Amino acid sequence: MTLPHIIAISGASGSGKSLFTETLCDELRQIDTDVLVLCEDHYYRDQTHLEMSEREKTNYDHPNAFEHELLAQHLRDLKAGKSIQYPHYCFKTHTRLQKLTEVTAHRVVVVEGILLLASPELMPLFDLKVYMDTPLDICLLRRIQRDLTERGRTLDSVAKQYEKTVKPMYHQFIQPCRHKANIVVTQGGKNRPALEVIKAHIRNTSKL
Ligand SMILES: Nc1ncnc2c1ncn2[C@@H]1O[C@H](COP(=O)(O)OP(=O)(O)O)[C@@H](O)[C@H]1O
Ligand SMILES: O=c1ccn([C@@H]2O[C@H](COP(=O)(O)O)[C@@H](O)[C@H]2O)c(=O)[nH]1
Question: In the list 5, 19, 143, 189, which could disulfide-bond 206, CB 3.0-4.6 Å?
Answer without folding.
Answer: 5
